[in-house]
Amino acid sequence: MLKEQDIMAVLPARDVARARDFYGNVLGLDPPLVMDEENLIYRSGNGTSFLVYKTDNAGSAKNTQMGWESSDIEGDVAALRERGVVFEEYDFPGVETSDGIASTPVGKAAWFLDSEGNILNLFQRA
């Protein structure tokens, strides 16, 4: 049953207005579908979407929560930096970034935090 259904990522936000500003003005996403003052749905490529919802638990996860596939990660990282996005630098077994981008056997990746402390990423397949 589920294999035929659309998937929607879900991201927590302590401050939904601040998150709306980040996703719209910093990342450049189209205005969201506003379900109510505590729930926003953003659309992205190929019919994908994600929900931003109000909760005090935002920013508590220590793992990547959502990502976008990229065909030009260096260009996308540069463009997002121009918009004020700060990319994380990591150095641990299996992942070491250089100028914000890690090269792995399966591709390249870059991570950044949204306004709520959620870990997001870009990924370009090898």
From TrEMBL:
One protein family per Pfam: Glyoxalase
Gene3D superfamilies: 2,3-Dihydroxybiphenyl 1,2-Dioxygenase, domain 1 (3.10.180.10)
Domain VOC stretches: 4-125
Protein name per Swiss-Prot or TrEMBL: VOC family protein
